[in-house]
Amino acid sequence: MITVSSVNVNGIRAAAKKGFAEWLAGTDADVVCLQEVRAEAEQVPAEVREPAGWHTVFAPAAAKGRAGVALYTRREPDAVRIGFGSDEFDASGRYVEADLPGVTVASLYLPSGEAGTAKQDEKYRFMAEFRPYLEELRAKAAADGREVVVCGDWNICHREADLKNWRTNRKSAGFLPEEREWLGKVYDEAGYVDVMRLLHPEQDGPYSWWSYRGRAFDNDAGWRIDLQVATPGLAAKAVKGFVERAETHPERWSDHAPVTVAYELG
What we know:
Endo/exonuclease/phosphatase, Exodeoxyribonuclease III, Deoxyribonuclease I, Chain A, AP_endonuc_1, 6-stranded mixed β-sheet, ExoIII-like, alpha+beta
């Protein structure tokens, strides 16, 4: 069994003060993927940077205080790679992967975008470069007899069931037709599987992000943008998947919640 958790921490230093450190100390996960760390490793409190029983790798953005991804693994990885061979994005703190026995686990923070702006153009450039890499990664893993799971904040809802207020967000970044089509091609053409949707085929959500504005969390007006996207062989071994949603608004240490999946590898 390998249990993988993924969460956008919305700034690890702030999250550590609000409950992330306690969550990490109590999790049963074997791998934790973080996004939007927004800190250099040396800026992170020691108990979070190098917690007992974990091996950590941080991939911060060259732009200070932005983006940043990280991986925590119980077992020391056989190899770690930062970026995916992109001249534009490899120093942007958006992708890191590690090889563990039989499986490559990655943490992804795909740009959020903003419809009709340069931020959306940046998102589309990232998407255009990243899908061929996913295809290459899957092919290489298959040749090596390995599986792959790319966890993280994908910042795209694929279906209407993936966000509560889909009717009013049809022109919003994260639910634009071009974005949804691209994610569909990750599944249908690149050959990956949305693990949580596989485990919860008929459910609305389960959502993983709720705006801090208004009463989005209390009303469960969320978005399912935090995904575990796996090769079919690994996806078929997923036995349980859930969102670790806080009980109450004050207990939240991020505007996202961890998405956790247990895979039975035996």
